[in-house]
């Protein structure tokens, strides 16, 4: 079912929100209303061509989302080591690196590759303030970079999720039915499951988005501790490690 986007935008304007991230389909039809309200729009894109389209329709910035990301990485399978410098070659508007981001070294790398900052999703779930069940945070701590799976590829709606019993069922259905897989075959395992997982802590209730960065998540800090720690460590990396190469 299509969400009531016009009502969402009315609520955003009424609430005084000044920065909006859009994703998935093009926000072009809604740009005039948001611009009129003085809203800055950042569109999430998984390819350079989509990023350029976002720039053309007036988006103020782009969130460039690599193949490592949790959720929907698109169908091109381009990782950020390639996607970010390609975006830097083409884009005139600012862009931030999304997908697999969660450490100070990745922040430094993203800046070196041309991004103006980073966008973290999975990493913020494993923080004290995140309003999710403790089981979810523990699952991220326990996961490695090998523990995500790609589902819904036959539907060309690929999603990266954390492996669990429900995901195993989805993978088996897709393996058996192949290109004939329909959303009806898996809808009970992907639709409406987030309240049970995120609020109820039922970790096998269904598929839920998770990035490969789970392999780099080892603690549950406050958001303040996470951000301040990353910035401080990034500065150390730049000054002590990278400047050291220049000195040599």
Instruction: Could you tell me the CATH topology label of the largest domain.
Output: TIM Barrel
Instruction: State the order of secondary-structure elements, H for helix, E for strand.
Output: HEHEHEHEHEHHEEHHHH
Q: Would you tell me the structural class of the helices and strands?
A: alpha/beta
Distance between the termini: 59 Å
Order of strands across the widest beta sheet? Answer: 1-2-3-4-5
Number of helices: 11
| Helical content (DSSP H or I, runs of 4+) | 40-55%
CATH architectural group of the largest domain = Alpha-Beta Barrel
CATH class of the largest domain: Alpha Beta
Let me know the average pLDDT: 96
Cα-based radius of gyration, to the nearest Å: 19 Å
Q: Would you spell out the secondary-structure blueprint of this structure?
A:
Elements: H1 5-14, E1 19-22, H2 31-36, E2 40-45, H3 48-56, E3 61-65, H4 80-90, E4 95-98, H5 104-112, E5 118-119, H6 122-125, H7 134-142, E6 148-151, E7 159-162, H8 165-177, H9 183-190, H10 194-199, H11 223-247
Parallel strand pairs: 1-2, 2-3, 3-4, 4-5
Antiparallel strand pairs: 6-7
Helix pairs in contact: 5-11
For this entry, give a set of tags:
single chain, 248 residues, alpha/beta, TIM Barrel, 2 domains, five-stranded parallel sheet, two-stranded antiparallel ribbon, 11 helices, 12% strand
Commentary on this structure:
This protein is α/β, with parallel strands linked by helices and 248 residues long. It folds into two domains: 5-120, TIM Barrel (Alpha-Beta Barrel); 122-248, Aldolase class I (TIM Barrel). It has helices spanning 5-14, 31-36, 48-56, 80-90, 104-112, 122-125, 134-142, 165-177, 183-190, 194-199, 223-247, and strands at residues 19-22, 40-45, 61-65, 95-98, 118-119, 148-151, 159-162. The chain has a five-stranded parallel beta sheet. α5 packs across α11 (223-247). It is globular. The model has no long low-confidence stretch (mean pLDDT 96).
């Amino acid at each position: 079912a299509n969400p009531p986007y016009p009502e969402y935008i009315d609520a955003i304007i009424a609430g005084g929100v000044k920065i909006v991230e859009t994703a998935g389909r093009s926000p072009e039809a809604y740009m005039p209303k948001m611009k009129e309200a003085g809203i800055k729009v950042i569109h999430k894109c998984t390819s350079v061509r989509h990023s350029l389209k976002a720039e053309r329709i007036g988006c103020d910035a782009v969130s460039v989302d690599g193949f490592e990301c949790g959720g929907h990485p698109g169908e091109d399978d381009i990782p950020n080591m390639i996607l970010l410098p390609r975006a830097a070659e083409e884009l005139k508007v600012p862009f931030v690196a999304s997908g697999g981001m969660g450490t100070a070294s990745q922040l430094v790398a993203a800046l070196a590759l041309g991004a103006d900052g980073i966008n973290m999703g999975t990493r913020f779930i494993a923080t004290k303030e995140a309003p999710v069940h403790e089981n979810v945070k523990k699952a991220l701590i326990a996961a490695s970079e090998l523990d995500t799976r790609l589902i819904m590829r036959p539907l060309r709606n690929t999603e990266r999720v954390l492996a669990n019993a429900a995901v195993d069922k989805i993978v088996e259905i897709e393996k058996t039915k192949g290109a004939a897989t329909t959303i009806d075959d898996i809808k009970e395992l992907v639709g409406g499951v987030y309240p049970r997982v995120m609020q109820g802590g039922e970790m096998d209730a269904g598929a839920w988005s998770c990035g490969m960065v789970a392999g780099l998540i080892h603690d549950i800090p406050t958001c303040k501790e996470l951000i301040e720690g990353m910035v401080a460590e990034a500065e150390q990396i730049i000054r002590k490690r990278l400047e050291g190469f220049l000195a040599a």
